[in-house]
Design goal:
The chain is mostly beta strands. Helices cover 5% and strands 44% of the residues.
Amino acid sequence: MLTEQNVVGIWDGEAFCGTGFLVTPDTALTCAHVVAGREEGNMAATVEGRTITIGVVRRVPEVKGAGSTYDFPDLAELRLSEPAHDAQGVWLDQAGPTQAVSVSVHGFSGHTLEPGVQPDTLHLTVAGRSGRFVRLQWDQVVQGFSGGPVLDTTTGRVCGVLKASRHEKGSSGVG
């Protein structure tokens, strides 16, 4: 419940970009690729039903790199122009998830039974390491979940950030 209350949608004007999550009432994390190339001053987050202007504090790495996807670790820190009232931020874990652990990802997508971008949830199991990343299995990662918090359901702590689906050019799209 705590994680779900701290999830934010990230927008560039009318265009939905992806998901992020609060780590403090005025700071959010997301993937760097979610905010890369976006115009400062035009970006906002939907927080507690409100729209709050956001700015990018930093992206790591700063630029995408030469590959087809944004280089590791693909993270961005965002600052909200005003703090969220009822959200304090998620609980972060020191370690990544272990193999066979159940995780959930709260985010937003356009793949629900309702029209438009809506809150959505994935339930996944950690398959194991995949290079510097962790591979998840069972649910379908669809476009819009990029930057969503990966919640270890056994500890109740956020243990990662969802980056993409395995088949980024396939029918599932990028996470």
